[in-house]
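Researcher: Next entry: Fumarate reductase/succinate dehydrogenase flavoprotein subunit (Gemmata algarum).
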Amino acid sequence: MQLDAKVPGGPTAEKWTRFKKEQRLINPANKAKYNVIVVGTGLAGAAAAASLAELGYKVHSFCFQDSPRRAHSIAAQGGINAAKNYRNDGDSVHRLFYDTVKGGDFRSREANVHRLAEVSVNIIDQCVAQGVPFAREYGGLLDTRSFGGAQLQRTFYCRGQTGQQLLLGAYQALSRQIGLGAVKMYPRCEMLDLVVIDGRARGIVTRHLETGKIESFSADAVVLATGGYGNVFYLSTNAIGCNVTATYRAYKRGAAFANPCYTQIHPTCIPVSGDHQSKLTLMSESLRNDGRVWVPRDKADCGKHPSEIPEDRRDYYLERKYPSYGNLAPRDIASRAAKEACDDGRGVGPGARGVYLDFGAAIAKQGRDRIQAKYGNLFEMYERITAESGYDRPMRIYPAVHYTMGGLWVNYELMSNIPGLFVAGEANFSDHGANRLGASALMQGLADGYFVLPYTLTHWLAGEKAGVTPLDHAEFKRCEAEATERIKKLLSIKGKKTPNEFHREVGHVMWEKVGMARSKESLEAAIKRMQELRAEFWENLSVPGSEADLNTALERANRVSDFLEFGELLARDALVREESCGGHFRVEHQTPDGEAKRNDERFCHVAAWEYAGPGKTPIRNEEPLTFETVKLVERSYK
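Model: Predicted structure:
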C-alpha cells in the first residue's frame, strides 16, 4: 500500500498558502457537471455539503437521523478554539499549532495541524456572520475562556451548548442549498457500503431505514463525515446511534484505517450509576476553568459529605501534580490521574468511582449568578441526572470514552488512499495525534468542511473527467446484493441474544482490557474474546421483525457486527504499538512517576491498517512522521 501524504514543500507555515496558489481550478459553469456524495451532516458534513453546493457542485447529502440537525455535533458543549488573540494574552497561529502538536503527544502530521491553526481564525468570522450567538464581554466583544492543554484563553463558546449553536449555523447554510436545489437531502438513509470501481470510489450503497430499501448512489467523489467509533466501548458520551459502519465498510473496500488505538477518555463525565445505562453524559471541560478537582486525602473520609472534609484533608491532585496547568491539564493526563486516585481507594460516590469537581471557591469569589451565567445549562443537566445541585455540593465526575483520534487515513488533501474518497472531521485521523485538546473537535470539523475540502476536492476533480458510473454497473449490483444478503443473514439466525446484549459484552471487554490502561496480556485477551464473541454473534443473534420496514433492532445488529470486527483491529493496533502516548497508555511503558513514555525511535509514525480479507490478519503500513518546526521533546505539563 502506498501512503503518499502529498504534503506541499517549503516551510510548514507556508505549505497551505503554497497549495492554494498551485491549486487546479474548475470553470464555474463546469462544476455543475460533477456530483459529490457527502455522508454525515454534523459540522464537517453539513459545512462541506453547503460549501461545495455554494461552489456549484451537485451534492447528495445523507444522514441516518430524521433531520440533519440531529447529528452528534449538537452534543458538544464547551467551545471552539481559534487563534484570534482577542485577549491579547500572547496567542498566535504558531502557539495554537504547537499546543495541538504537543497535546497530541507528537503523533500528528505537522502540516495538517498548522493548516488547522491557520484557518481557525476564519471559522469564528464565518460563524458570527451566520448568527452563531457566541458569548460576549460587557463591551460587546466576543468572550473566550481556557481549555485543557493551553495557558491561553482562546476558546470561543455559547454557554454550554456551543456544538448545538455551531451546528445550527451549518444547518442553515445546508438548508439554504437544499432550498435552492443544489443539495438533495436523504434523511433516515444509512450507508452500508462503498462502491470502488477500477480503484476509484464511485458511490455508496444505502438502506432506507423506514422502508428497508437497498439503493445505490453514484458520484464523481465521496466524502465521509460520519464521526468516530467511541461506541465500540458501549458506554461512552456518544449518542447511541454513533457507529463505525461507514468508515469500517470503506476499510474493507481498501481504505487504510489509521491509528485506531488512539481513543480519548474524557475526565469530566457523570459516573456510571448502574447496568441500566446505555450511554454516559459529558460535563463540559469548560467547567474546569472554575471547578477544582479533588478527592479526600484519607480513605476514611470518602463516605463523608464533602462539606465535612476540611481543606487540609483534601487532595487537589491535578494542582499538586501539574502546577503549571493545574485543573486544565490535558484530558488524557487528567483522566489517568482520576483513575489513579480511585484505584488508590480514594474515589467518592457509589462504587467509589468518582472524584469531586468543586465550585465552592469560584462561587464564593465570583458569586452564584456569574457561575450560572457561564455554565447554567450544564448545572441544570447535572441536577436532572443526579438529583444533586452542583451549586450546593461538588459535582461527581469520572472518566469516560468520548472522542476517537484514529480514523481513515487521509493525505494532506483529506483524500484516503482510495482516489475519490475524501474523509472529514472525526472520521479521519489527521489532526489530533494521540490525544485531542478540548475545543479542537469543532474547530477541525468546520475547518475541513468550510475551508479545506472546497480547495482540495476541487483540486482533485479538476484532473478527473466528469461523469458518474451508471447504477446498472456490475459492481454496484454486486455490492447491493452483498448488503441485501448480510441483512437477510442477520434476520435468519434466530438465536437468543439481542444486539444490545452483544454490544454490552463488546463494550465490557473493550473498557476492561483496552480502556485507560492497556497491557500485552489484556490486549491479547481482548483479541481472543472478540473472536469468540464474533463467532457467537453469527450463531446466537436474535433480531425480530423484517427488513421491509423500520427495524431498530436490525439497525443495531448491523452496526454491532462491525464493532465486533473493529474492536479486534483497535486492540491489535494497541498491541503492536509498544509505547505510551496520549490516550494510548501501555502499563509496560511509563516513566517512574507514572507518565506516558514514548518510543520515538520505533513508533514516530502513523500506523495505517490494510484489510487482508475475512479471517486474515490485517497488514500494518507506516507513514513516517517528520517534525521540521516542532522539536520532539518529552511532553510535560508540570
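Model: Note for the record: The mean pLDDT is 97.
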